[in-house]
Design brief:
This is Electron transfer flavoprotein, alpha subunit. One of its GO terms (molecular function) is electron transfer activity. InterPro entries: DHS-like_NAD/FAD-binding_dom, ETF_a/FixB, ETF_asu_C, Rossmann-like_a/b/a_fold. By secondary structure, the chain is α/β, with parallel strands linked by helices. The chain has a domain of about 80 residues: TPP-binding domain (Rossmann fold), CATH 3.40.50.1220. The chain is about 15% helix and about 15% strand. Strands 4-3-5-6 form a four-stranded parallel beta sheet. A two-stranded antiparallel sheet has the order 1-2. The longest helix has 15 residues. It starts with a strand and ends with a strand.
């Protein structure tokens, strides 16, 4: 099976012919990070690894055409929706400028991705990324339940119709 890996930055083909279940996954950002204890002892066990112990083979490396957006780690997200349809380029440019001022990134609804206005790595929602930013700005987003599922745990939500 081919699944997103490393925070959605890579696609990995996973083959587990001798073990079942083959894989259990949880989408990144679905669960909040737990606070860790600061007073723990860190163990550094000694071990030897031989070449014969490695059962992984890299068959191909495919480079991304452009830098992917880190929606999951962003504190500020400015998302666009179908409401920018009268001026798509202007709407996306406005979102990019606001995101830059805030030190954040641009997100989008599925409608924008499906229309080809923005790439899928910007998509927030049930079929995109689940995010937990400090501030989530929604520009022209209808508020469909599928989109809301991906951003409802934001600390502050600002919606502009």
């Amino acid at each position: 099976m081919t699944r997103p890996a490393f925070g959605g930055h890579l696609m990995a083909s996973i083959i587990c012919p001798r073990f079942r279940p083959a894989m259990a996954t949880v989408r990144p950002g679905v669960m909040k990070k737990r606070l860790c204890k600061k007073d723990v002892e860190i163990l550094h066990p000694a071990f030897a690894l031989e070449a014969s112990d490695i059962h992984t083979e890299v068959t191909e490396t495919v480079k991304a055409a452009k830098k992917l957006v880190d929606l999951i780690g962003a504190d500020f997200i400015v998302s666009v929706g179908r409401g920018i349809s009268k001026d798509v380029e202007g709407g996306i440019k406005l979102a990019e400028e606001l995101a830059e001022v805030l030190g954040g990134v641009v997100g989008s609804s599925r409608a924008c991705v499906d229309a080809g206005w923005i790439s899928a790595d910007h998509q927030v929602g049930q079929t995109g990324k689940t995010v937990h930013p400090k501030v989530y700005v929604a520009l022209g987003i209808s508020g469909a339940i599928q989109h809301k599922a991906g951003m409802q745990d934001s600390e502050c939500i600002i919606a502009v119709n």
